[in-house]
Amino acid sequence: FPGVRQAQWLTKTKLVEGLPPAVQGIMDNPAHGLQELEERAKHAVSHARLWDTPEVAPRREQYCPVLFENLIHICRLMSGKYPSLSKRMLARNCRIAATWERESILLQVRGLSGILMNSMTPIPPVASKEEVLATREHVLETFYPIAPTIDLQEVNVYKELNDTGQCFGDGYPYSHPHTLFFLESANVRTNRFRPEQLRAKMLMFAFGNALAKAKALHGNDPKVLEQPVVVQSVGTDGQLFQFMVFQLNTTDLVSNDGVKNLVWIDSDRNLYEKAQCVPEVKKRVVTKPAGISGFQPDTFKKFLALYLHGTV
Q: Where are the domains of the chain?
């Protein structure tokens, strides 16, 4: 069955389609000047897809990371307007481990959690206390007679780990997970996660980072959090983008009752429709010039709004 539905059950999470009002408000506010960076974003796409390599057509494993770095560079330009954006750090190859009990099953998410942007300050909760309490009425989907853990790997767990990896040593100033970035840059399609699989992976690792942080702050006792932990996630294959905001409201995950966690997902957004790396010529006439077509400014604005979230 589809990955996100399974991830929702495993993490006791209610899904909300689209981005939360806090992020949408950043996109819609002309005072932030997001539209002024659209030309830079188009240039970033052209650089990654057309100009970064002498090859006629760059491979995805090359242009996907280049595009990501270009977009992050544009985001950093906003620190002149919002100095607190400089209190961020990108960490690569961070390992995460988080353990929890769901019904009678001990679960663990662990591994490399993409590229992690850390912040000195946490993202404020995006759902109000009333919205959080209202999740008590939400009924989680079950998969009976299929077990929701049917395709999970079974291992012997000798130590129940809950840590945010090597990125956060004692006294590390950028101690709050902000946004995870997953680059599905494999050139061969079968080696890449499909969009639905990628969204499930994004949810599990956003949850894992939030849970490990909550336990570090509040201990291991299951409880509804007075101050929920928010972790964002962005996934892309260099053209198609997935956006996610996860709010951990509770570490009491054993039963299906009570307060649920929340996730907002905005799915399958193209940054551009096509990259024509070489012109198409028919009978000595250029029928399709080289270039980027179908640039979607809203997709770029969502990327930038998630970056700005928690600061503006």
A: 2-308
